[in-house]
């Protein structure tokens, strides 16, 4: 069943102009039962149960699914995408807007929290729905209504203290190269912007997204672009992704990775060290290892601070300093992310 449905989606999207990654993005599973069937799992026998009817629906591209081990309910990649029954637990301290982002929104579609940097919410869409996502309750409708990026661009033009624009979302690389090019052109015309940064998890689930068109956008001489990937587990970085990252690196793009520390996914020193190794091999430096944001539905992924610090110390003891990410957490009202261990 599930396979048949996937085949149909692929065929429908199979136009000659559709780039590879677009087809791969449309080739996905959005249904808990279909996902379990595909992986040979019985949803009724999963220890945490499943949530087949989540407000934050399942979304797993097949390109990512292929890296999940069939028949293993504890697979660390599966845990990141399967809606678990524990998402319904109400846990004190976990809410809809843990970072109080609503307070840092001068105009719709733009977050300004930190000195010199502004974050553009360019889209509400993501290639994958990560169950730990801190924006799972984000009011994208408010941010993306009406004139799209117009107000945000106007705000940026006026604010010459802003030197860096960060494209985020949702996931900015769910946008096609044409639309990205149009946005980058507007941004490039703002003289006080010196740095361009993109945060994206799309390449991790669909490496083909790092295509030639994107390469030429990011290697443009206007500024030195930084791409921050969001990989959480070494198995998420396959040979194809590594090769594409190295190509971007050769073109002068700075490549960093931001991971989230997740119970049952990457909360052991071997996994984190292997992640750093894989990243290094791809020419990507570990940037942050984030403590989970207290978003409702994700409490079961939390790792206590004392364990997080111990894991960080274990990494320090076995890796060169430049392969140890900063352990950080986002705290509302602070001037920067809080570094728990550097
Ligand atoms: C995390 C974040 C940034 C970037 O912080 P860095 O420490 O520079 O990576 C900027 N704006 C917002 C709103 C953020 O949440
Ligand atoms: S890609 Fe990022 S924004 Fe999108 S669901 Fe995953 S964690 Fe959230």
Structure summary:
This protein is α/β, with parallel strands linked by helices and 342 residues long. Helices cover 33% and strands 14% of the residues. It has helices at 2-12, 20-26, 32-39, 62-65, 76-81, 140-144, 150-158, 177-188, 202-205, 212-218, 239-250, 269-281, 305-318, and strands spanning 28-29, 60-61, 110-111, 117-121, 164-168, 195-200, 224-229, 254-260, 285-290, 326-329, 338-341.
CATH architecture verdict of the largest domain: Alpha-Beta Barrel
CATH topology value of the largest domain:
TIM Barrel
CATH superfamily annotation of the largest domain: Aldolase class I
- What share of the residues does DSSP label as strand, in percent? 5-15%
What is the average of the pLDDT values? 92
CATH class value of the largest domain: Alpha Beta
Given helix and strand content, the structural type is alpha/beta
Number of domains as seen in the coordinates: 2
Give the termini distance in whole angstroms: 48 Å
Strand sequence of the main sheet, in spatial order? 3-4-5-6-7-8-9-10-11
Q: Rounded to an integer, what's the Rg over CA atoms?
A: 20 Å
| Beta-strand segment tally | 11
| Main beta sheet | 9 strands, mixed
The hetero molecules present are: pyridoxal-5'-phosphate, iron/sulfur cluster
Order of helices and strands: HHEHEHHEEHHEHEHHEHEHEHEE
Low-confidence stretches: 1-16
Residue share in helices?
A: 25-40%
